[in-house]
Design brief:
single chain, mainly alpha, MetI-like fold, 2 strands, 4% strand
């Protein structure tokens, strides 16, 4: 007696199954690329952080043995420079992030209304962001040079100030209301450079949101007698809260991981050494691969903690 096959075995795949199969096939290349260039390097770095590896050990060490230890983390966390470097990193990150967003807001408000040459001026504002970092860092180093920099030349001629090595002097004593404050000069210059270089990124986000605001809100407020400052405070700023939240998150992450700006300007000297520069020092200065990997893991964990705090308490959803 001949047994007929089940109907489910003869039925062709449904459209939903075919679409799901096609979706997995389309995602597979991206998944493999992310695994190769993102996930695997992160896992390898984490593995190295538990291995006592120096440059001289690379030829003979067996990376696959389980002789793991916390020695690298002890070296990093118990070092006398770790907490000052972490504090410097946080000051640099928060200062550069907030100041870049503030400058971006000012630039967006400046070019919001039409005026002759507005398009050219908008394009000019993007120059710091699109210019090569090596070139602009070199220009800033020349401008702030103590011997022939234009900032010192103008300061000496016009204001009678003393020549100052802005990028090599750790602190500057400032008298304010009878108080003598040691201002972190070099770190301030690095933060100012960070804000100047990346404010166009915030400028584009904020300008796009400003141009999307309906004019009816401002017209109604003007009819009710609201002055420009009130319209800015009660209409513009509330509408920009979501943009500010997104910008702060992105700029905080990118600035916290920044290396090239600080290294090109000061090399990490004069009180500007951040965690990324210290990782470079461990790796290429001391040839301590394990310690560099451990500090990179600590960097990621610190950033993760701040992101959790941000999403838990500070994130503002756009209405």
């Amino acid at each position: 007696m001949k047994v007929l096959p089940k109907t489910s075995q003869l039925r062709p795949p449904t459209l939903a199954r075919r679409e799901a199969r096609l979706a997995y096939i389309m995602i597979l290349p991206t998944f493999l690329i992310v695994m190769l260039i993102v996930i695997l390097p992160v896992l390898w770095n984490a593995w190295l952080s538990f291995k006592p590896v120096r440059l001289g050990d690379l030829a003979r060490i067996n990376f696959w043995t389980l002789d793991l230890s916390l020695r690298n983390f002890q070296t990093v966390l118990q070092g006398r420079h770790f907490w000052p470097i972490l504090t410097t990193t946080l000051v640099y990150t928060i200062g550069g992030t907030v100041l870049s967003i503030f400058l971006g807001l000012l630039a967006a408000l400046l070019v919001r209304e039409a005026f002759p040459g507005r398009g050219v001026f908008r394009g000019f504002l993007l120059f710091p962001y699109i210019a090569p970092v090596v070139a602009v860092a070199f220009v800033w180093r020349m401008m702030l040079n103590a011997q022939f920099g234009i900032v010192n030349e103008l300061g000496v001629r016009w204001f009678g100030m003393q020549r100052t090595a802005f990028l090599a002097q750790r602190t500057l004593e400032v008298s304010l209301a009878g108080l003598h404050i040691k201002w972190p000069l070099a770190l301030s210059m690095v933060i100012l450079f960070e804000a100047w270089r990346y404010f166009p990124f915030a400028f584009l986000f904020i300008l796009a949101r400003l141009q999307a605001l309906p004019d009816d809100l401002y017209e109604a407020a003007a009819v009710d007698g609201a002055v420009p400052s009130q319209r800015f405070w009660y209409i513009t700023l509330p509408q920009l809260r979501g943009v500010f939240a997104t910008l702060f998150l992105l700029r905080f992450i990118w600035t916290f991981n920044k290396f090239d700006d600080v290294y090109l300007l000061t090399g990490g000297g004069a009180g500007t050494q951040v965690i990324t520069v210290q990782i470079y020092e461990y790796l290429f200065g001391r040839y301590n691969i394990g310690a560099a990997a451990a500090l990179a893991v600590v960097l990621g964990l610190v950033l993760a903690v701040f992101l959790v705090i941000y999403f838990r308490y500070l994130a503002v959803e756009e209405a």
